[in-house]
Every structure is written in C-alpha cells, then in structure tokens.
Records
---
Amino acid sequence: MYEYSGAVHIHSIYSDGTGKIEDIAKAAFDSGLDFIMMTDHNTLKPVSDGYNRWINGVLVIIGYEINDLQNKNHYLAFGIDEVIGTYKELDNGELGCKLNAEDYVKQIKERGGIGFLAHPDEQRQHLPEHPSYPWISETEDYTGIEIWNHMSEWIEGMNESNKIDRFLHPLKSIVAPNERSIKRWDKAAEKRHITAIGGVDAHALKQNVLGFFEVEIFAYKVLFKSVRTHVLTDEPIAANSKEDYETGVNLILDALKNGKCFISNHYYGSAKGFRFFAEFRGITCNMGDDITNIGSPVILKVLVPKECRIRLIHNGVLVDEIIAMNASWNAEKAGIYRVECWQGDKGWIFSNHIRLNN
Ligand SMILES: [Zn+2]
Ligand SMILES: [Zn+2]
C-alpha cells in the first residue's frame, strides 16, 4: 500500500483564516505533507477560483465546513462541487445554512460526497469569546467523525494561568483525541462503518497577547507539525496532469470513506510506516475492512515506527496494553478492533477499526 499524510480542516482567507491557499500549500510542503484538505466556512469559492489542483508540491483538496442557523452541527464536506442549500446571515455576521443538519448531511451523501462531524463534543463554557460548537443533531448519513481537533483541544484546556504558555507553545498542550468523541465513534461504529479523522482546524489567527505584542496563533507551518491524517491507497498518486489530480483526489477520498487511514500527532514523531492489519486465511485485511466467517483464526498485527505503548481496543474496551514496536493478537470475538499508540501519557497514533463478523 502507499501512504500519504495530510492535514485536514484548514481555513484560509476565503473565510476566517489569515493565509492564502498557495502559502498554506507551501507551508504544508515544507512540513513534509502530501495533501491538504481546505474547509472554509460555507463556501466552495476556491473551486471556481481554480484552487483544486497541485499547488507548491501539495495536492490541495477543496471541501467546506457547513453550520446551521444556530451555528452548531459543523460538518466537513468533500467531494462535491457546489455548496448545498441557501444561507442566512447570523447575528454575529457569519452565515448559517437554512437546511437542518440531518438534511445537509443527507444531501451531501446523495450527491456522492463524504462528510465528517467536526469537533462534535465541545462543551467549554469558561470562555465567552470562544463558545462551543457541538454536534447535537441525530443522523446516520455521515461518513465519519473528526475525533481529534487541535484548535478545539487547545481552547478547551485553556485557563487564565496557562493562557500565555498555550499561546507561545501551541503544540505542547495537545494530548489526545477528545474522549467523548472516541466514545461516540466506538459506539456508533458497532452498528456500521464510521471513519475517524484528525483535524487541525487551522486559522493562523493574529492575536494581541499581552496588550503590546501581536503573535500569530497557530501559524500554519506550526500546526502542520501536529495532528495529521494518513491515508493508505492501493495505487500511487502521481502529479503530472489534471487527470492525475482527479485520480489522486478520488484515491484519498475513497480511503477516507472506507477507513483506510490513521491519525497521528507528528509532534511526537513521524508515524510513517504505522500499519494495523489482520491475517485471515492467507489474506491480509486492512483498517476499514470487514472479516466475516471467523471460524478460521484471525491474527491482528500492528507495526509502529518506534517503541511506544500499544493499546488494543475491542468494542470500545481496552483488552491489552504492551510497550513494543510491534504486536500480534488472536482475535476470537466478533466486534470492532482498533489500536492506539502512546508516548508516555501523550497520544501519538490512532488507527481505524477492523471489523470481525461471526
Ligand atoms: Zn467548526
Ligand atoms: Zn473549522
């Protein structure tokens, strides 16, 4: 398989980010990323402006982030060319889609797109200037969940005493995916396949910190060293022509749709080469796959680029934990299996599920 690492969930000057897409792509290239997934709020204008192409050595995928009239139920949509529904200006001057969340999620699926619940479990109340934007809708039509959102974790853990430290060291304070989102994901995935992704939610906002100096919070090049989503594809992605671009986008979106991906925090080391797979009757099955008829033995295997604390999770419950660079287990029970890799008490790599059916 071929592995490509990318940053998902990025805002540019097309909404409330401060960077131009070409400069964001340059920062991504310099950070060693293969692709970026842009998600400006409620707009696909970058598509009509021709930004859906290779830029500065990086494959740029243009999606968008939708919200409803309550500015809740944020949804990251990819694989469609036009914004759906009509919009209304909200009290704060931002836009809200007049469709309710169930409808926009459904319509994106019907148009062949894919989508992810964005930062679904925010619940902070301590920062009036940064309200939470949780997912509160009931729907089954989404592709997956953004279980890790850098911006969200960074703000949620901020208080008066650590504020300045957080501004100055935006990567140090990131520990692990949101626990409530992980629970939401494991529970929902027992019924059907649901992909987990990690997002940066990059804006590169400029903020005045101490009243006399302005810092760029979350400069894109800084954020690109944190939460990454790595996809695995059966074919290589080439960068020669417009057709290659379309093929590359389809390979990445298919991998995301099918759960052939994992999440890493690059701050704790490159996760390139991580693999979680199953061997069954001489066949290798990967994340996102379903294995049926488990009368025959199924061996789960994990390979990690450096020694770490590997945790095997079955149906949301921790079943084994070892410190190693690789591990294998006999999977006897039906259900969904995934692994987590930790460096001490910091989350490093989070796989998608492999499902075993009776
Ligand atoms: Zn959002
Ligand atoms: Zn966002």
---
Amino acid sequence: MDNRGSSDLRAPKVKNVQDEDQQSATREASYSDLKIMSLGYRWGSCSIGGRLNIHWATMQLPPDLIDYVLVHELAHLHVRNHAEPFWKRVRLAMPDYTARRNRLKQLGPDLWLPE
Ligand SMILES: [Zn+2]
C-alpha cells in the first residue's frame, strides 16, 4: 500500500544547476546606459558606472558574434579585467564563447572600417 497519500501527479522537480548558473550569469547583469559609437580598435567598453559603449562596426558582425561582444561587455560589469573569474562568467552565459571569440578575431579585421 502506498501510504504517501499522493494525489499529486507532478513530476519531481530536478534542479539543473548549470541552467540556473547560466541564467543568473546574464540576468544579474544590468547596465545604466548603452551607446553605439566609434571606439577605435575596441568592439566595446564598460565604464565603472555600468555604461556600455559598443562600436558601431559591431553591427556588421553576424548576430552570434554581436551576442558575444554584448556578453563580453556585460561580464565586465562584474569583473573589470580578463582574469579567470571573468572568463568563467562569460562561459556560464555562453558556453561556446571560445569559438565565437576566435571567429571574431578572424572576421573582425575584414569588417573594420577606417576611422
Ligand atoms: Zn574585455
């Protein structure tokens, strides 16, 4: 006899820690302002006050590489430098970031227009 008295047919909730980490890596990033501008040799920048600047040339990139630039700058809201904690945060939001970063390095110089 089943003495759990169960009339609840819902499946048990299984925590997916990786999914939660991935979601929080992007959800916790909020910026105060976003500007599209000329940034010289940089795709983007992030100020201490949470202002993101994205180079207008970024808009020439394929959408998945634009996403990489945005995730990269959003991660800088939490970690200013490029040390391991920074890349860990980028990886949580975008597990395939290494492939995208490599494509950006290859593709970027072809799209860049002179200032
Ligand atoms: Zn950076």
